[in-house]
Amino acid sequence: MSIIGSTQFLERIQFFNGERLFASDLQALESFNREMRWLHNQSLHQAGVGSGFQVTGNIGDRQVTVSPGYAIDSCGREIVLTETQTLQIPPVADDGSGNPAFYDLTVSYPDDSQLTPSETRTGICTPAGVISLREAPVFCWVQLSSDPTNHQPIDQRLKNRINSALFLVLAQVQIFNCQLKQPVSTVPRRNARPAKQPHIACGNQQTPGWTAGTLGSPVNPGSGSLLVAPFDSYMFTGSVDTSAAAFQSTPVYTARIVGLRQFSFTPAGSTTAQPFLMDALISIPTDSTLTPTGFTVQIFTVAASGAGTPAATDIANAVNQWSICWMGVER
Predict the structure, then answer these.
(1) Residue 180 half-sphere exposure, CB side, CA atoms within 13 Å?
(2) What is the 3-state secondary structure of the chain?
(3) How many whole angstroms separate alpha carbon 112 and alpha carbon 79?
(4) Segments making up each domain of the chain, as ranges
(5) Most confident listed range (92-106, 107-121, 189-203)
(6) Between vectors from CA 78 to CA 72 and to CA 80, what angle results, nearest 5°?
(7) pLDDT (tens digit per residue) in 159-175
(8) Rounded CA separation 110/15 (Å)
(9) pLDDT tens-digit profile of 129-149?
(10) What is residue 201's predicted lDDT score, i.e. its pLDDT?
């Protein structure tokens, strides 16, 4: 077992010239190194299959083939298979009700007593002893319940070992008349490597510091003026801060405008507010402003009213009521 929870202290083994060594001294050194490695695995890696351990079998087969592989259990212990192995499936006809029987194939770390001695050596004035054991995992077929929506191990003891990742599920099979009814399924397989999914984050930026200008040339922000494009569409440029997402590289950004589209303004020479509708197209320039911590956004407004044309200040006031909802996908 791992040193976590089973050992109260660690001792570094030391040697000196002239020391008389016993087998227990070398066993203690091996145990120290092994448990430190297990602690590393348990602390920095998740239990599951690291590589290999592919299980194959087709309809009608009475056996499955397991390729060499490497896995880690919840105690950080390495489970290693160095040669392709063929396993006979359980010889069952059905689940007792005329339906296929479901089984999980699991693999686990072997105790020394479960390993085969690969070399023995005669001692000095002592009987021969084992000096190496051939590393080989322990495979176990675990019978599952007949519930078609949720197959669970029937044996509670084995279920607990699977749930605690002491037994790692490699594959699931359906057996009917002592042969595979369907190809081997690896859906229940537990992988040690986290899934490679993109980093996705989103946010909502209020008033991103709009700067107004024409479609061709931005206005000096210090001037405080607002220019109109030739077809009465205003352009606003703002900066969106995405540093909270902690992107490591520049993601692919998308953005949309959040807020009302109906506003009001007071036409020149009138004291009565009139409604107007306004929407905008949004654009994210793909230039040097596109970074892992933010991006520049441009919007192009179009306003319409039956009571006249809203002034530039009316457009600006309406735009300041909008926010930018963004999403970044880091590939």
Answers:
(1) 21
(2) CCCCCCCCCCCCCCCCCCCCCCHHHHHHHHHHHHHHHHHHHHHHCCCEEEEECCEECCCCCCEEEECCEEEECCCCCEEEECCCEEEECCCCCCCCCCCCEEEEEEEECCCHHHCEEEEEEEECCEEEEEEEEECCCEEEEEEECCCCCCCCECCHHHHHHHHCCCEEEEEEEEEECCEECCCCECCCCCECCCCCCCEEEEEEEECCCCEEECCCCECCHHHCCCCCCCCCCCEEEEEEECHHHCCCCCCEEEEEEECCCEEEECCCCCCCCEEEEEEEEEECCCCCCCECCEEEEEEEEEEECCCCCCCHHHHHHHHCCCEEEEEEEEC
(3) 13
(4) 44-180, 199-330
(5) 92-106
(6) 105
(7) 999 999 999 999 999 99
(8) 31
(9) 877 888 889 999 999 988 877
(10) 92
d(CA 148, CA 145): 8
Q: Which residue, among 130, 101, 104, 98, has the nearest Cα to 117 in the 3D structure?
A: 130
Torsion sign (Cα): 47, 53, 56, 62:
negative
Measure the CA–CA gap between 240 and 243, rounded to whole angstroms. Answer: 9
pLDDT score recorded for residue 132: 80
Q: Measuring CA to CA, which residue among 64, 62, 150, 46 is closest to residue 106? A: 64
Average pLDDT over residues 114-139: 83
Q: Where residue 252 falls among pLDDT bands split at 50, 70, 90?
A: very high
Asked if 108 contacts 140 with a C-beta cutoff of 8 angstroms, the reply is yes
| Cα gap 139→90, rounded to integer Å | 12
